Amino acid sequence: MILGSPVTSLSQSRNGLNQFVPSSYLPRLHRNTRLRVKCMSEPKSSTDFFDLFSFSGPAPERINGRLAMIGFVAAIGVELANGGDLSAQLSSGGLLWFLGSSVLLTLASIIPLFQGVTAESKSGGFMSADAEIWNGRFAMLGLVALAFTEYVKGGGLFQV
């Protein structure tokens, strides 16, 4: 650029040719004084019991989803192996296994939360925290659908 020249920028016209535009034709950009930039680092998660187990807290849906994933896979697996429906599985000792695994998975899920570790900070790639939430939701729906189907059918899902 030549000093003192009224030409200050190079713009592209509609036909694709570059042309010089005089500075008097360019709009003035005013600085917005209300615009503030904040750091968007990940906030420290709360380790308070009531914050973790609140309705929108990180613990309830994640723990229930993990239990549903284990329960759905176990229920389908035992039904394929033995042919017993969900109620037969629960009455023949499955309830104790369910309670034991529920306690173990709940403790394994809440201990990191009480230490301030979030699932989002440990997730990445294919096995993300969002994928775990969605898989848990589908497993919850799958368990309900399995129980409802077996109730309506009057027996196991894979029984003829």
From TrEMBL:
UniProt entry tagged with the keyword DNA-binding: no
Membrane topology: Multi-pass membrane protein
Keyword Membrane: yes
Signal peptide segment: none
Name under which the protein is recorded: Early light-induced protein, chloroplastic
GO cellular component term, pick one: photosystem II
The organism's place on the tree of life at top rank: Eukaryota
Subcellular location: Membrane
Keywords assigned: Membrane, Transmembrane, Transmembrane helix
